[in-house]
Design goal:
heterodimer
Chain lengths: 172, 214
């Protein structure tokens, strides 16, 4: 179990230029992100998304406020990269069961930061359309059949849902 | 598949100390920009006679106060948006901005209650358009400062932040115009001066996502 205080301390040291603390922090964050993104993007894309997020963390490390918790900051960056990845997602992802565990290991605090909490804020039609086409990688035709929407409505729901997700990145 | 060990080594090797972005410094910066905008508008166009005499009209104080509070709330939220966090509450600014709606409502009620509603409606258009343009020019300076700030940061809701930053800049521009404009009636301030805020917000929504996305 990762404690936010430990991560926040490592991040403060990293902002001061401590490379050892930063290396340890990035290793921990990498593992956390793998769990965070599990089942929320096609498994083949998880590592690319983790890499994008680590690079974003590095580029934007000055935006972490050392007086505040670390994980809500990291989760906001991770969600931002995730929405971006969903926008770019193609329908070529393999549908597999991920072996990583996600929600089951999350406590109540982490659950509030999760991607599930973000998706839950979408209307069901938009959430289903995004999960089927951008997370599971199904075609629009398949998604339409599975969720009982017309193909046009699936496309509209994906478009509107992604737009709404971008607005909700910081919501609990 | 990315080689994470190598990536982490590279990022750690590239690590240089950084000074964390401080929202307090951002607020001070924007307050300075707002003061400079007001000073420039007043220096170029003059100060209202009642302000110059040290006896500002109550309506001026009320309207300028509303613009100042709305501008401060929206600017503060936009500045804070440079430091993202899940659970960050930035809704207070909406209410402060919504309070500005009281001005056009009062203006409309005043017009409707006048003995000849609609009479002379177009008489002040030239002055009104001048106020809007002056306010928008002032707003652009504030918007430029906020854009610079946001580009240093990591806004994650760039459209929402664009609206907020634009509205904040608009409120600052409207404040500057209100301190300068000699039209001392709510039908003018509540329409033309308030128009600056949504107009600048639309500019912010258009410009900031393009410049602050990362």
């Amino acid at each position: 179990m990762i404690h936010d205080e430990d991560l926040a301390r490592m991040m403060r040291l990293s902002q001061a230029g401590d490379q050892a603390a930063y290396r340890a922090l990035l290793g921990t964050v990498r593992d956390w992100l793998r769990r965070y993104f599990a089942r929320r993007i096609a498994p083949a894309h998880v590592d690319d998304l983790v890499q994008d997020t680590l690079i974003a963390l590095h580029a934007k490390r000055a935006t972490y406020d050392p007086d505040r918790p670390f994980l809500p900051w990291l989760a906001a960056i991770a969600r931002y990269r995730w929405v971006d990845a969903l926008r770019r997602a193609r329908h070529d992802a393999a549908i597999e069961e991920s072996t990583a565990t996600a929600a089951s290991q999350e406590d109540a605090v982490l659950a509030r930061l999760s991607l599930s909490a973000l998706i839950a804020r979408l209307p069901p039609g938009q959430a289903n359309a995004i999960l089927l086409t951008r997370v599971e990688g199904r075609s629009v035709v398949e998604a339409a059949r599975l969720c009982g929407q017309s193909e046009t409505l699936v496309k509209v729901n994906v478009h509107r849902g992604l737009k709404r997700l971008a607005l909700l990145v910081e919501s609990e | 598949m990315p080689n994470f060990d190598r990536l982490i080594d590279d990022l750690a090797g590239d690590l240089a100390p950084v000074v964390p972005i401080s929202a307090a410094r951002g607020r001070v910066l924007l307050a300075g920009v707002a003061l400079a905008i007001c000073a420039a508008v007043l220096a170029l166009l003059g100060v209202r006679p009642d302000v110059a005499a040290g006896r500002p009209a109550p309506l001026l104080l009320l309207v300028a106060g509303l613009f100042a509070i709305a501008g401060a709330a929206a600017a503060s939220a936009a500045i804070r948006a440079a430091q993202p966090a899940v659970g960050a509450a930035r809704d207070g600014a909406r209410w402060a901005l919504a309070s500005l709606a009281i001005l056009p409502l009062v203006a409309l009620a005043t017009m409707a209650a006048s003995p000849a509603p609609g009479a002379g409606l177009w008489d002040g258009v030239g002055v009104g358009v001048g106020c809007v343009l002056t306010g928008l020019i002032g707003s652009l300076a504030a918007l430029a400062a906020l854009t610079w700030w946001l580009r240093r940061g990591a806004p994650v809701s760039v459209e929402k932040t664009g609206w907020l930053a634009g509205a904040a800049a608009g409120a600052i521009g409207a404040l500057a115009v209100t301190l300068e404009c000699p039209e001392d009636v709510v039908t003018h301030m509540g329409t033309w001066h308030v128009t600056i805020v949504p107009a600048a917000a639309a500019i912010g929504r258009t410009v900031i996502p393009r410049l602050a996305r990362w």
